[in-house]
Amino acid sequence: MAKVNFQENISLRLLEEFKVVAQKVCMMLAAEGVHRRPYVEDLPYFQSLSLEKKQEIVKTLVFFKELCEEQTAEGYKLKDNFTFVWRAFRKLGYVPRADVFNFMSDEDLVEIYSKDNKQLYCNFKFFECCSYTLEELYSLEWWNLYERDPAMTSKIFNAASKVISGDITESYVPQVEPHLLKEIRSEEKRVFMQQIKLMSPLKRDKRVDAILVIESATLVENRKV
To answer: Which domain holds residue 112?
Structure first.
């Protein structure tokens, strides 16, 4: 019984921490014109997770909050891709290929994924495009949030696997055609035309430890409009 109560206390603490941090992140996004709800009442998705998963999510969200705070404290905008992405590299301890910024603009979505397909970072443009709450984004796997042609998904996975495995050691423009990416759980059900512009290995201790993905996304449908 004592163990159960202890775990319940930890779970409640994590819930409150997630709420506070999510609110702060949304306030910083709103300051630059992107208005996102942090969560819905009772946080059903977060609440349903294991204790270990809750701890992982809070850690990831705290990382992003601190990244935003450091960016703005030094006088930079969150929408400034070059400084914000470089800050993420440094904070995560990753060494990128020297050419990645040649492929990047402030209008691009930039994501960093671990070798086991967990999103470690996404930039300001990512939040500008999607309509999900922070709770949904951090609590649900991406394949439960988005839908695309299975053939495109297969091509993206194959390309990413080649980078992660070390078969491709340079920055790489994958042969993935522009395709529709659909939100499947959001109220707005946004649909984008997405193009994968670049995949590139990120190294830690001279070994590939993550992958950088640069994309463009153009809104083609929004149920709310």
So the answer is: 2-221
